[in-house]
Design a protein that fits this description.
- The protein is α/β, with parallel strands linked by helices.
- The chain is globular, with a radius of gyration of 22 Å.
- The protein is 37% helix and 15% strand.
- The chain contains 13 helices and 11 strands.
- The strands form 2 sheets. It has a 7-stranded mixed sheet, with helices on both faces. The chain has a 4-stranded antiparallel sheet with strand order 8-9-11-10, with helices on one face.
- The protein binds pyridoxal-5'-phosphate (PLP).
- The site of pyridoxal-5'-phosphate has 13 residues, from α3.
Amino acid sequence: MREAFLLEKLNERRDQQAFRKLKRVVGLVDFCSNDYLGLAGKHSGFGQPLVSHGSTGSRLLTGNSTEAEELESQIADFHQAEAALLFNSGYDANLGLLSAVPRKADHIFYDQLSHASIRDGVRLSFAQSTSFRHNDMDDLEKKLSLHAGEGEKFVVTETVFSMDGDFCPLERLSVVCNRYNAHLILDEAHALGVVGNSGIGLSQSMELHDKCFARVYTFGKAAGAHGAAIAGSATLKDFLINFSRPFIYTTALPPAAILAVKRAYELFPTLANERNNLSMLIRSFQQAELKYEKLLSSTAIQGIIVPGNDAVKEVAMKIREKGMDVRPILYPTVPKGRERLRIVLHSFNTAAELGQLIACLQ
Ligand SMILES: Cc1ncc(COP(=O)(O)O)c(C=O)c1O
């Protein structure tokens, strides 16, 4: 990875004696945490947590733990990355990455269907930004060529799109990024746990993870938990610890959340049957003849286009009256005329349940 621009700023911090490092403090009297009444129980005489499982502070103060550091190593190993850093949510991870890394002279290129957390990260960044047409590599290439020669370039996209359920064209994307020396950032939120052997996600399943500058994994989807991690180089991790405000200035994930994520990562390799069930349901749904346009998707996220906010709300209501929870996605979340039912398939949905849903759409 070309990371001289990160090292430059980290070295400045070192020269100013202001380099931030995660530490673990044990055996000292607590005059530091925010656990004013001792209810989190970590350092107080209560011994046991009385109310919650709070982490008592930010990672750089009292919120760091052996469990958090071990989870980061486990995640880095699982995702074949040099390092990983936890964030409190996927929203925070995208914000924390995009607001901190690209500088004023740099340029971010992002898919026009990117999740709000990517867009908000782009808006918080001082870098210039340009969107490219959804999954359109010619458009991306055209836009990259228009900005050749300017600072660092970053291309951000999702591996599985949250509203359409389609994959990004990762092979071409990595070729184009390589051609224009652009750093590739992937949000694997909807791929983790479900795509590839052991649920490793799209980039590793295509053996393209080494082409990525950073990968974002969120735990609120297939991991059934909460939080997120950014996987990348050790330098990137140091950089985020030093400059990413959504990492620095917030209370760390509580121990219970960390343990839940650890368990999910242990379980992922054992869930081949669940992933197979899910694939079977996806295939049946894709093969069904429906009276509405169905988006092409080989992932758990399926879109049925019902143009018009009122029309899509009515279809969703009728399905809900039959006991099935589907939600309408309205304009302006999606473009006018592309309002849709967003159907999410799960390994635990039965063939009979899917049949009932399909019947409602025929
Ligand atoms: C692609 C994508 N990235 C990031 C997020 C945000 O993740 P979280 O819910 O953990 O904040 C989501 C969640 O909706 C998402 O779909």
